[in-house]
Design brief:
Largest sheet: 5 strands, antiparallel
Radius of gyration: 12 Å
Number of helices: 1
Structural class: mainly beta
Shape: globular
Helix content: 10-25%
Distance between the termini: 22 Å
Length: about 80
């Protein structure tokens, strides 16, 4: 279910909000992949920064798509998780 929500947000360029651990995060999702450990991860740009971060699927909860907030994607350069 998470993948479907994230793929839709990436394709429609919608921002998303979710809980990561106990912290609320709003990001511009960029892509989904697996890290070196074989775990599924989501890369996204944190709102208000130029930082692209990696988020592990198993720590993501309470996902909401912010349909009214669209963004123009940037291309990330070499980031590890």
């Amino acid at each position: 279910m998470k993948s479907k929500i994230f793929k839709s947000a990436i394709n429609n360029r919608n921002r998303i909000k979710f809980l990561y651990g106990l912290k609320e995060i709003i990001i511009e999702p960029l892509y989904i992949t697996k890290n070196g450990k074989g775990k599924k991860v989501l890369y996204g740009k944190i709102i208000g920064t130029n930082e692209i971060k990696c988020f592990e699927y198993e720590k993501i909860a309470n996902i909401k798509t912010l349909n009214y907030q669209r963004f123009s994607p940037i291309i990330p350069i070499n980031n590890t998780c």
